User: Fold this.
Amino acid sequence: MTESAPLVQPVGAEPLAGLRVAVTRSVDRAGALLAALAAAGAEPVLVPLIDFEVAEQNALGAAMRRLAAGEFQWLVISSITTVRALKQWCEGAGTSLAALIPAGTSVATIGPTSVDILAAEGILADLAPTDVQSAAGLVALWPPLENDAGSGCNRVLLPSSNLAAPTLRDGLAAKGWDVEAVTAYKTVDYPACTELRLTATLESRSPERGWLSQGRPATGEILVLAREPRFQQLSPAQADGEIQAGAINAVVLASGSAARRVAATLTPLPKGCLVVAIGEPTRAESERLGMPVAATAEHPTPEGIVAALARARTNFQNHTAMESS
Assistant:
């Protein structure tokens, strides 16, 4: 494939038939998205640009012990990777996250996908937005602080990445809550240091969501997804060469961190290479970096990304047809 623009979709074909799509998600987060893209007719290629390492354990451990002691009214899970980081700490401490969270502590997260992940780990989420599935959506949904809230009754534990935006922390604080933010994990360039890499795996309710092998594949290795086809993994340099040659038609940005790495390693992107963002914060970061986004997923799910990519392809083809007429 050498076309510099997205291929024309054959009549009656899957919505993404003929598209070769670079997925910039980390290996352990890419399975469901790769499967959804393949089911829609695309040829997904994994290009991991970011990875995750454990954070400084003393601060996280102190916060987790206070959580277990019932010092927080709310635990906010700001990402699926946060679940993994907390699970890894709990495993090291000889417990589970479900067992550690007191019955009197409520759990909030950022959307239905996180709700499902937490449920698979035995944790019931009490609050999560369904429309605006983001930090801003959770802040908008957050309950008002009770007027008679005493010491310890208005405290929120917010574990997150070292690169997390202050949206949740500042938004909840503005509503009167006492927010304790703690770094649960570090987002780093791929690959992470072997000794520090976040390795905890999450439970899955459906086999097709998880890798058959939980280890990290080497660059160029073919990945195997349960009950799904094989997917190729490229290094950033390999992906850049294929993008510039027109052999990759689209790039999926699954986070602001991924957008920054794409800008640093894969740009300038050809005009015909469609950029699709998982949500509004990622879109804003991509465009701040000079990478126009062709479409943004209405929901940060594999299905939402597939729908956004299909819209982007149709819009691009219609625009190209108008320019040619």
Observations:
- The two ends are 26 Å apart (CA to CA).
- Residues 1-5, 205-228 have pLDDT under 50 and may be disordered.
